[in-house]
Amino acid sequence: MKIIVVDDEPIIADTLVNILAGEGHDAVAVSDGQSAIKWAQMIRPDAIVTDVIMPGIDGIETAKAITEFLPNCRIILFSGQAATGGLLAKALAEGCSFEVLAKPINPDVLLEKLKVQ
Amino acid sequence: MGHGRWDCRLFVDLGMTNPSMLVNIRGTELSASDTREQYRQKLARITLDSMVQFVGLLDANGTVLEINHGTLGAAGIQLSDVEGKPLWTTFWWQVSKEINKGLRDAIRRAAQGECVRWDTEVYGRAGGKETIIIDASLMPVKDEYGKVVFIVIEGRDITKKKIISDISAHKEAEEASRLLAAIVESSDDAIASKDLNGVITSWNQSAERLFGYKAEEIIGKPVTLIIPPELHQDEPMILAKIRRGERIEHFETVRITKTGEHIDVSLTISPVKDADGKIVGAAKIVRNITENKKIERALRTTEKLAAAGRLAATVAHEINNPLAAVTNLVYLSKRDADDSKKVAEYLDLASRELDRVAHIARQTLGFYRDTSSPIHFNVAQALDDLLLLYANRFEGRKIKVIKQYDEDIQIIGLAGEIRQAFSNLITNSIDAMPAGGSLLVRVSKSHAWTNSQASGIRITILDTGSGIAPQHMGNLFQPFFTTKEDVGTGLGLWITRNIVEKHGGVIYVKSRTGPTQHGTAFSIFLPLEGKDNHQEPDVTTGASSKSAISSGVANA
Fold first, then answer.
1. Domains in chain A, start-ordered, CATH in brackets?
2. ipTM over 0.85
3. Is the CB of B328 less than 8 angstroms away from the CB of A8?
4. Domains, chain B, with CATH or none
5. Which one of A105, B27, B475, B556 has the largest count of C-beta atoms within 10 Å of its C-beta?
6. What are phi and psi of B155, to 5 degrees?
7. pTM of the model
8. Across the interface, do B331 and A107 touch by the CB < 8 Å criterion?
9. pLDDT tens for each residue of B214-225
């Protein structure tokens, strides 16, 4: 699977990419939403794993932008912040519902999720 | 028109039918042989003498020339008793010095051509003590050249009228005071009065309701009855102010009811004066503010809870990131267990992340306390270490770092704390530049801004970020003040200021929020020899703003 991992904390993005690569995925790490959208246009990933609260475009906006040109792209959000609830409610009101995992994510859970289509 | 016809008519008018009969009125004899002129003069005399009001003629100096018979008779004197004497020396005008002077002033004015009219008190009879009130007037009489030669004095007794109007004024005053009493009685605020010894002299219905004492049971008792014992010392202070004629407004204190309940009240106490203006007591309006106080306290608790909530959210978030990294690193360590080199690398990273967690816990929950002793340390080196620590974040945000270090300067202080103060400023700058910018870090030798004798160093941390809105400048150093609602604890600058002050330093901020010119500069002055370094940081006094801290906004 081609996966883009988005987190403004490089160590989280990098370790996730390492984990995903170990399971045979073709994963790339980026540190913000804007880069994620650019990469998505180039490599047309099967899934996006992104943090929600980030400087610049947040994870939900990023996911919405990507699903516009890649409607079948899997979106997995992860967040450890209360503010996420408000953002998700807003996204839901606009007709987008996304899977959200609590941060920190258990890598096994993430890998399981990616196996289930 | 013949002379006889005049006579006839007069005699008929007087009710006399025999024209040959002589008429004598108070020594003025009318005779049929009088010429018309004599006749008219006699009539004038009779008119004057018959008048009951005071009528007299004075010369321009106020000397009595003539006074009517009615007045003289009523006074029990002869014209000769007063004729040729200045009017103000006559018995009528000896009631008081003021009344006498009032007449002399009036005569002086009349002599200058003015008509003068005034109400005055005069004696009614010579030798008597009874006074009457007259509506007096002086009319100047001028000769053909306009010179005042005579003054006509008139006076009408208005004593009865005056008494009647006084009675009605008194009635009005009584009515007004009844109305005032009704207002006081029906007021929602408790209104009471006390004398200068603190003894209660009046007590309205609201006071009865508020304190539970009936008027009859508390009037005459000391006011300390409703003051909690621990506040009794306030009463002499209040009474002293009242004696000086001062008013006490909205004095918030506690009072005690009959049942012993403590109530929060706002007092307004005003001195009460008697008719002579002497302070005889105090009137107090007592407003029950217990409910307001409860709401205020609830609000404060809510604010504290909200602040604690924000802090908890921040800690959760700040700890989540390193935790996520450690979770992944543990997973990788297990996966690559055979590759000891890789595992060592993961564990190394994991331990760094755990350090971060520890640091966050220390900073947000405990206020970083450096228990070590002050040491000589190199400020530029400390800043370099920090900049290296944040290198990833600078890179991620495309922030260009410019360093300007004068020379290597050593100061004495708690290295850990000072590093934290710098760190808080640098992370604020990073947060202010989400889309990149420049960060200038400057260290130079300097003198204290307030004391050129004290030498030290100045550290400037300047960013080209969004800047601080002018309305936030005043709260910048307050604890729990943050504009970063989701991620800020609002403690960073407060902690920074505490650390700087603890080292005898000062922190100053300038900021611009203009469209092209924007950014923030923090300057810290630290003396070369830190002061009071052994003292524990005092977290409780940190909230009070100190004069050493000043902030200003540069022209945007």
1. 2-115 (3.40.50.2300)
2. yes
3. no
4. 3-158 (3.30.450.20), 187-288 (3.30.450.20), 294-363 (1.10.287), 367-553 (3.30.565.10)
5. A105
6. -155, 125
7. 0.39
8. yes
9. 999 999 999 999
